[in-house]
Amino acid sequence: MSNTDTTVDESQAEYFDSERLYRIGLYVVMYGLAALFFIPYWRMFQLSVTPMKFISQGGFHLVPPEITFAIWKRYLIEEPIIYQWAFNTLLISSITTFIVLVVDSMIAYSITRLEWPGRSIVLGVIMASFMIPGYVNIIPLYTLINDLGLINSYWAIILPFAAGPLGVFLLVQFFRDIPKELEEAARLDGFSSVRIYTHMILPLSTPILTALGLFVFIWSWNQFLWPLIVLNDDALFTLPIGVVTLRSVNALSPNLIMTSLALASMPLFIVFLLFQDKLISSVQMQAGTG
Predict the structure, then answer these.
(1) pLDDT digits (tens, 9 = 90+) for 205-219
(2) How far is CA 194 from the centre of its chain?
(3) Is residue 67 domain-resident?
(4) What is residue 65's DSSP assignment?
(5) From the CB of residue 283, how many other CB atoms can be counted at a distance below 10 Å?
(6) Domain that holds residue 204
(7) Which of 27, 60, 149, 286 has its Cα between 20 and 30 A from that of 11?
């Protein structure tokens, strides 16, 4: 009996040792990857507070020999054009996100919950649009926006992306998992299709709508090519375009460039810290829908 107990204890000890080694290795890898991702951001911040006389000398310093916030003061206080660019980007991203959530959810609801001929064909066309590269649509979209007289306006950026196949696909998969018995019970209580959509489907879909909204907001915030094509006024520029403009003007001043990049990336960094749990759950949810 004692030999059996000894064998069990040894096997358990080996199991816990292997489990401990696995966790240690996992933590080492994860923290190592986190450090690799952190280094460029630290380098960006370090150069933004390093005086130009030290940058011109070359070499790498983990900590700047001298720290100055003169450039941060210049952009935040003396030349606050970056506030206008941030407001433009925030406004465009917020409106785009709201419209996408409304339009995509209505399309997904009509495909999954309403009976009408050709639903499968419409869904197939929407899914087939995944195969079309976005660059193919640039010239037709520009022609349409120009004919509508929307060039050099916020709507020129918002309207072409008011709906997307990714959002429709995710919401269709989620809406299909909502039990139909709930909808049947609601109809027995006198609910119309619109009321079922607003009072039942949308509240039950809060997780996927939040995840989709975050992804659309971040994507819209980082847009570069299309705003660059349709915007000509400096006051209407978004942050990505404004940062590139500052980089071209101050090509010989790395600290100026890095300060503008840090200011441009800071809002998204704050958004990620506030909603990181929902972003992680959304990634898991997308994996589950596949």
Answers:
(1) 888 888 888 889 888
(2) 30
(3) no
(4) S
(5) 12
(6) 79-288
(7) 27
